[in-house]
Amino acid sequence: MKFKLVKFALLVGVGAFFINACLSTKPAPIKRESTTPSLQSAATQQIPVLVDFSDELNFKQLQSNFAKPNLHLRIFGDSHMAADFFSSRLRTHIATNAVGFVYPLQPKYHHAVPVSYKSKHFEILNSKSKDLQANFAMGGIIAKALKKDAFIRLDNSITPKATLIAVFKSPHTKDAFLLKDGKNKHFVLKSAVRGKWIFARIKDANFPVQIVALDKNVLLGGFFILNEGSNAVIDTLGINGAKSDLWQKWNESVFLDELNLFKSDIVVLAYGSNDALIGEFDETHFKESYKKLIALLYASNPDTSIILISPPTITHKVNETFELHPDFYRVQKAIYELAKEEKLVLFDMHKLIENYGGKGLWIEQNLSRNDVHLTPDGYKLMADEFYLNLTQMLKNQ
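Given the sequence above, the corresponding structure tokens read:
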């Protein structure tokens, strides 16, 4: 299957779907009937994109969790989630009042809309990297101080004052970090145990905050930015190139501790593209690893609700054209089987693309790249459809 724009001459005269292709933290909510007329008119089918495999117990739990005024929704995924386009759009539909978890620094092409960073003399270690034996905490990103006085300046757009929990590790028991908040209050972070991930809680930290390394080789594994009271949060932990088993490179005990530190009501798992694209697809390993991750999430919170996202159309370059990847339907089938076996709700990004004209039309409309990725507007549309379909499903049943 080759995606050539000439095959979509039927779209002549159709306007661009979005005026602004740039990410905005507060875009106006999309209404399907008024903002997707060109895609709707081209659609030849309407296949359900949100498939409910849950039993009565899981469904009622999802209804209850989604209705919480202080909902914590966390997303784990690959590059489709790493730039925060999808999750940022969800925040326009679901009110939030805190940041939640963020990486210590954002790798290249990653983004977290609610926070901003400035840094000097820190190296980013990524659990996606091959042959890297670092002891990773939740999320799989580490900021390593290359020298004394290396610093990270962290700010956020949601709250000027919050509880900051710094996840850090030191090779010694001396002072590791100095944290200075926006009102020049100072806090020293040190570990009583060498080489162990520590959670340092700083109440009423005024932003921006600056974290200064007091020695080289001290490590930061992330930050929780929370209110002392109620927290409504959508946070996302996406890594470019991540496969569904990447979490197995993270310290499982620390991962569970962090899940317990701030429990999720709903967890969205969005993997699959790289399971097809990187190496030979092993359906058995894929499902077993995914099930272990789901079990770990339930171990942290038995009442959490888990939603799977099946990837958009997976293409790869062959010579000078992009073709459907031969393992795409195998990955999609495995995710459907997994959702059915685990009694979960599944959102199918590929079927949504097919409903609105297919991959070629999305490229024409600047909603998709030629490769596996969508554009920022494509991810925003996905988030709108995810929210609309989920709210309708929970309301109608």
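The longest strand covers residues 161-169. Try to locate this feature in the token string yourself.
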